[in-house]
Amino acid sequence: MPTLLRLDASANTSSSLTRALADRFVDEWRALRPDDRLIRRDVGATPPPALSEAFLAAAFEKGERSADQHAVLKLSDELIGELEAADVIVIATPMYNYGMPAALKAWFDQVIRINKTFSFDLARGDRPLEPILNGKTLAVLTSSGEFGFAPGGLNESAGHLVPHIRTCAKYLGADHIRHVGIEYQEFGDARHRASKEAAFAAIPDLVAELSSRAPDDDRAEPAFAS
Ligand SMILES: Cc1cc2nc3c(=O)[nH]c(=O)nc-3n(C[C@H](O)[C@H](O)[C@H](O)COP(=O)(O)O)c2cc1C
Fold it and tell me: Please, what's the b/e burial string for 83-102 (b: 16 or more CB within 10 A of its CB; e: otherwise)?
């Protein structure tokens, strides 16, 4: 079933640029593929908890899990279920302190889990981890106050947001990744306005490209169920 998973990571729920970019993405997607299912996970508004010792013990439990361990993993199971269901993942995230917001990192920590989204085998040599999921597409929609974080840019060495997401994306099963970003927000000048306009203008082509890769619509589910 073609399913879109939209993740919002901004703590700003009223005037967020990345939420507006994701709104535009979803509107465009609906226009092209009105029957696809949408799952929304707002980690900015409701951040997943940071990992605890109890979580680690439960996740790496080799024997039968206790009822308490199942309870500790409940949210992780739910988030992984949403990820497994997704054909296309949209991550809308601001840059906070040159990387991803802690809430988004907490989501990655909850979903990148042994024997769920990756396997570990020392017989593989120096690269013992392998992703379990595959075939997904990832759209990363970002905004930053400063600028020039891409390769060759003024602040390239401080740009840890998109590279970190790209590195982790293979454990989401994402093998096709696209990025659209707004910059210069803190300057509030013509460069910011141009960057914003260019990012919003890029969304229709991005959606056209990604939707052409989505699986065929062959089911009778209600449109945009959530
Ligand atoms: C807590 C916090 C940390 C930030 N850290 C950075 C940063 O390290 N680099 C940067 O370029 N912008 C930084 N910004 C600016 C945001 O990335 C920028 O305002 C962005 O447009 C916010 O996206 P949003 O409107 O979707 O929330 C930060 C903003 C906040 C609130």
Answer: bbebbbbbbbbbbbeebbbb
